[in-house]
Specification:
The chain has about 120 residues and is mainly β. The protein has no helices and 11 strands.
């Protein structure tokens, strides 16, 4: 069983930055970040492959958000810059062992508890 612990959410003014962290109790997984805005479905916004060689972003966050990982302690980060009010959501990290279809919830078995980001 893999546990994911998130941190780093909060409130920020438009144009500001936040960095989210997600610590995993296991390595060798593909990791993704999802978000759920009020009244909307949860959406996948970015993922990183095992080893960090590949990353992908949805258009709404491309060039503003960066996903990265620190292999030594199995931590994945989401650096969010130029934040907009529409980025307000609960952000979740998730871990996948199948590493396919990584923008979809069904690809992930393990989920963090979520952290609120308010812009």
């Amino acid at each position: 069983h893999v546990q994911l612990v998130e941190s780093g959410g909060g409130s920020v003014q438009a144009g500001g930055s936040l960095r989210l962290s997600c610590g995993a109790t296991s390595s060798g997984l593909c990791m993704g970040w999802f978000r759920q805005a009020p009244g909307k479905e949860r959406e996948g916004i970015t993922w990183i492959s095992t080893g960090g060689g590949t990353t992908e972003y949805v258009d709404s966050v491309k060039d503003r958000f960066t996903i990265s990982q620190h292999k030594a302690d199995n931590t994945v980060y989401l650096q969010m810059n130029s934040l907009k009010p529409e980025d307000t959501a609960i952000y979740y990290c998730a871990a996948s062992s199948i590493c396919s279809g990584l923008f979809t919830e069904s690809a992930y078995r393990y989920w963090g508890q979520g952290t609120q980001v308010t812009v």
